[in-house]
Amino acid sequence: MANKDIILKKLKESEDFLSGEEIAESLHITRASVWQSVKALRDEGYRIVAVTNRGYFLDTDYAPLDADTIRSMRAPKDMAAEGIVLQTVDSTNDELFRRNKKTPLPSYSFVAAEKQTAGKGRVGKSFHSPFGTGLYLSVLLKDEVYVRPDLITITAAVAARRAAARQSELPVEIKWVNDLYSAHKKIAGILTEADFSAPSRPVVVGIGINTATSQESFERKQLPRAGSLRGTAVDRNRLAADFLSELHACFLTDPRDILKEYRTHNLVLGRTVRFSEGDIVSTGVAESIDDNGHLIVRAGTRRVTLRAGEVSVEGDW
């Protein structure tokens, strides 16, 4: 067993800090070698706290994303899809498109990352993706999977809500069209991108779920409405596997049932919303979501059908 693996085992078993000197003596190595092993473990994603005159402590609330673990947890077990976890990537969506273009991949193949340097949201927005504090994952879908491209994002939202709700202490709801909210904070976003000119008409669905991003981090990025999934100990590998499993199950479900579930858990219905009509901002009450996933808003004497875009919900949202 390598020194770093022995050190990791010692840190996992310890309930307090372990000094570098103590570790070095037990392994008959130098303190510099201990430091190199700790650095290697940190590079693998483990959060090891170092405090002067106290030593090292493993933050066990954090566990690295692991592709093999995700694959072993997802259903069905015989899914032929491939998966990879990267330490850092510009965008998991872009990376998955690149990999599929180089070597065609089967549906439900995924790319996940500990950090995105250029995470993307809808309408050109960025998605704050700091290291190890969220699930940043993209999954590939080809035309043998989906029947209605217009409902892919809605289907993904239902799957993501199911997966997130399993690990949340508080209710998780969907905000039309592609966000998840909990405790009045946006905890997740979904971005669907497609290349319908390519063989098999590939679609990539990217999700970003905040699992441990601090409120201070959001405030520094001027994102006061953002928050993290509130669970006692969110297991990101389980969260990823549950999302992939639920997405697979949702695409085998009658779209009418998916729409029914989407409406049931949608927080905008019955609330006053603001929306844009060209350069004009209008206000109305969100009445319903039709069978195409469009939002129907009553604005005075008008009924407006919103096919895309964003709405703002009045109140503490």
Automatic annotation (TrEMBL):
Residues 64-255 form the BPL/LPL catalytic domain. Biotin binds at residues 91-93, 116, 186. InterPro entries: aa-tRNA-synth_II/BPL/LPL (IPR045864), Bifunct_BirA (IPR030855), Biotin_CoA_COase_ligase (IPR004408), BPL_C (IPR003142), BPL_LPL_catalytic (IPR004143), HTH_11 (IPR013196), Transcriptional_repressor_C (IPR008988), WH-like_DNA-bd_sf (IPR036388). The keyword Iron does not apply. Keywords: ATP-binding, Biotin, DNA-binding, Ligase, Nucleotide-binding, Repressor, Transcription, Transcription regulation. It comes from the Bacteria. Residues 20-39 bind DNA. It catalyses: biotin + L-lysyl-[protein] + ATP = N(6)-biotinyl-L-lysyl-[protein] + AMP + diphosphate + H(+). GO terms for cellular component: cytoplasm. Its EC number is 6.3.4.15. It is an enzyme of class 6 (ligase). The keyword Methyltransferase does not apply. It holds the Pfam family HTH_11. One of its GO terms (molecular function) is DNA binding. GO terms for biological process: protein lipoylation; regulation of DNA-templated transcription. PANTHER family: BIOTIN PROTEIN LIGASE (PTHR12835), BIOTIN--PROTEIN LIGASE (PTHR12835:SF5). Acts both as a biotin--[acetyl-CoA-carboxylase] ligase and a repressor. Belongs to the biotin--protein ligase family. This is Bifunctional ligase/repressor BirA.
